Amino acid sequence: MTLRSVVTGVGGHLPDQIVTNHDLAKFVDTSDEWITERTGIRQRRKAKDGEFTSDIAVEAARKALAAAGRTPDDVDLIVVATTTGDLTFPACATIVQRKLGCPVGVAFDVQAVCSGFVYALSVADGFVARNRSKCCLVIGAETMTRLMDWEDRGTCVLFGDGAGAVVLEPMEGAGTTADRGLLGFALRADGTKQDLLYVDGGVSTGKTGYLRMQGNQVFRHAVVNISEAINMAAADAGIEVSEVDWFIPHQANLRILQGVAHRCGIAEEKVITTVAEHANTSAASIPLALDAAVQDGRIKKGDLLLLEAMGGGLTWGACVVRL
Ligand code: COA
After folding, report:
1. Which atom of ligand 1 approaches the CA of 156 most closely?
2. Which residues make up the CATH 3.40.47.10 domain(s) of the chain?
3. Which of 46, 61, 81, 311 has the fewest CB atoms within 10 Å of its CB?
4. What CATH superfamily is the domain 2-173?
5. Which positions are annotated as active-site residues?
């Protein structure tokens, strides 16, 4: 028998305010046509004044707990994947713990930018699959619009705000790929590529800073790196990529995720895409896309899922999950 970290509930939350490409074109030198053609993005959500990453994380967490039939009292571990926590410290996870009203437990953030959710799942698996947590929330939550330089058309059109969450619980499996739970991972980082995607602020500067990116360079690395991680995660899980029921990529750019699917031989109809409506919500994009496809009935219990992401660092990774 093998103890597995099983996803027992999924939830998502988006801020109310919708910003379309046409809205952006009113104050940035861009167009709906350019953004749609290059990225597939049509709109994004934007948190309102006073609405912080912890607030949207809490909403997503409540929905995930309800879906799992659990309450905040059950939660003993909270891992928040975010780059846009409310404050430098405390961790967003401890703010979420307080706002949700969870009992004393373990709470911390994982900062791997857009790869954060995949990283956080693997970290949480280290607790849950060793029976160190009975009910864990893994949340990807971001207010990326707060890191935008609204005069930089190369970046400000790409990102949005949102949060997605899953509940992980330990369950015995047979130790085969038919088990429910997290079956395999591959995580990578290359700090020498920092200049391609970073924020020019932090404690070293005394300012929050803005996201800076060499978009075409990031694009060049994305398809190759992610495809490599997918094959490594599939090997770690002991599956063939062709067995996967659903591909849930990080929603950065439609052309990147289609390129990865093509390179890895994943059929178009298996690809979950929310980039048109959500834009790039960094660590929130995978759980938000998962939630969208669970809510509309495409993804069902028992389905084999492949998740992947790449982000600042550079960091990248993939994981295989049977829901
Ligand atoms: N509207 C109109 N024109 C724009 C624009 C915008 N929002 N942003 C950039 N441009 C212009 C550039 O100024 C440039 O003009 P020039 O040729 O006159 O100098 C032209 O479009 C081409 O710029 P380039 O950056 O080479 O475009 P691209 O084809 O690489 O597309 C991205 C830009 C950002 C869409 C693309 O590189 C991309 O998606 N990269 C990956 C980014 C990403 O996903 N990052 C997150 C990873 S987690």
Report:
1. 7
2. 2-173, 181-322
3. 46
4. Thiolase/Chalcone synthase (3.40.47.10)
5. 114, 250, 280
Distance from Cα 155 to the centre of ligand 1, integer Å: 8
Strands 304-311 and 246-249, by their bridges, are parallel
Pocket of ligand 1 (CB under 6 A): 30, 34-35, 38-39, 114, 153-154, 157, 213, 215-216, 218-219, 252-253, 256, 280, 310-311
Q: Is the peptide bond before 90 cis (omega within 30 degrees of 0)?
A: yes
Whole-number Å distance, alpha carbon 42 to ligand 1 midpoint, is 15
Comparing CA positions, the residue from 186, 193, 181 lying closest to residue 222 is 193
Hey, whose CA ends up nearest to atom 35 of ligand 1? 38
Index of the ligand 1 atom closest to the CA of residue 253:
44
Determine whether 5 is exposed, middle or buried from the number of CB atoms within 10 Å of its CB (0-12, 13-18, 19+). buried
Question: Which helix H or strand E contains 170, and what residues bound it?
Answer: strand 161-173
Atom of ligand 1 nearest to the CA of 39: 35
| pTM assigned to the model | 0.97
What dotted CATH number matches 181-322? 3.40.47.10
Whose tokens are 């600042």? That residue is 312
